Amino acid sequence: MSLITDAQKAGGRVGLKSDKIVINGGKPLRGRIEIRGAKNLATKAMVAALLGDTPSILRNVPDISDVNVVTGMLNAYGVSVTEPEPGTLVLDPSNVLKAHFAEIDALAGSSRIPILFCGPLLHRLGEALIPDLGGCRIGDRPIDFHMDALRAFGAVVDKGYEGIRLTAPNGLKGAEIELPYPSVGATEQVLLTAVRAEGVTELKNAAIEPEIMDLIAILQKMGAIINVEPNRVIFIEGVDKLHGYEHRALFDRNEAASWASAALATEGDIFVGGAKQQELMTFLNIFRKVGGAFDIHEDGIRFYHPGGPLKPVVVETDVHPGFMTDWQQPLIVALTKADGVSIVHETVYENRFGFTDALIAMGADIVVHKNGLAGHTRRVARREFEQAAVITGPTPLHGADVVVPDLRGGFSHLIAALTAEGKSTISNVGIISRGYEHFIDKLALLGADFVYEG
Ligand code: EPU
Question: Which domains occur in the chain, in start order?
Answer without folding.
Answer: 3-35+251-453 (3.65.10.10), 39-248 (3.65.10.10)
